[in-house]
Amino acid sequence: MTSAEQRAEGAGPFTTRLTWRPPGGGTAVWESRPARRRGTIAVRPSGAPAGRDVRGDALALARLRRLNAVAATAFVIGGALFAAGAGVAQFGSGDATTCASIYFAGGLFFTTGGYVSLLQVVNAPRHVPGGEGRLVTRHWRWWSYEPARVDWLSAFVLLAGTLVFAVDLLDSFLRGLSVQQTNRLVWAPDMIGCVLFLISGHLAFAEICHRGRPCLRRRSLGWWIVAVNQFGSALFMVSAIVAYTRPATGAPINAGIADWGTLLGAACFSAAGVLQLGEHP
């Protein structure tokens, strides 16, 4: 006997929540983020005032715990290194090469966190349409192409942002660049990376809010993780804008704001990484 899906919700073409009545009665709710992060489906039996979570199998839960720990730790360390690099730049305790080296090390951790976040989506247990509130664990994959899923698209855009930042960080080691070369090779990739981070955060809000605009969910740990990350991305964008080198002077618009924006934005990513350690099965 199969269950009939009652209602599908989401943002635009993306389905982020399904509600249906299982054959045994009651109500089952699948939500994208809890299912892939915690491996759960919420089930409320008939007449019950509160629901319970149906968990995935042991293999899926162990896999999710490992991936979550690696991704969260990578963002904590990456954010800390970016904050350290900005601190060195702001307080003048090191030369340009030292700052670039610290930023580059932080970028490696950010890229690692971005890729492992994508692996979380690719290898998360999946809801079975028509099943009795079940999550199925598939074989391990290192990659997939699923742009119709908002969680995959958010993670993929985040990874793309970290890779673009890597170009910016590598180019920052170059010396003797003209103003035009600096803006093209260093500033432009920085701006593109910030835009991609903001798009990824918007998609993450769409997943957790089940609509195209942000919402407020103070009791949701996932919401706080997304919100703190998005605030950090906004600070990165402010930093990138004022880091533009003006041709007339050959200096950034405001180096101090750029450094502080990077430092505080990086601190947000570290804080969100700490929160993410708690969002596990």
Keywords, separated by commas or semicolons:
alpha+beta, 5-stranded antiparallel β-sheet, 281 residues
Describe the 3D structure.
- The protein folds into 2 domains: 52 residues, no CATH class; 219 residues.
- 59% of the residues lie in helices and 12% in strands.
- The strands form 3 sheets. The protein has a 5-stranded antiparallel beta sheet with strand order 1-2-3-4-5.
- A hairpin with a 7-residue loop joins strand 6 and strand 7.
- Helix 3 runs antiparallel to helix 4 and helix 5 runs antiparallel to helix 6.
Concise account of the structure shown:
The protein is an alpha+beta fold. The protein has helices spanning 32-38, 58-91, 96-122, 150-171, 179-209, 221-242, 255-276, and strands spanning 4-9, 17-21, 27-31, 40-44, 52-55, 126-127, 135-136, 245-246, 251-252.
Supply the number of helical segments. Answer: 7
What integer value in Å does the Rg equal?
Answer: 21 Å
Low-confidence stretches: none
Taking the sheet with the most strands, its summary is: 5 strands, antiparallel
Distance between the termini: 29 Å
Q: Helix-strand pattern, N to C?
A: EEEHEEHHEEHHHEEH
Q: Helicity, in percent?
A: 55-70%
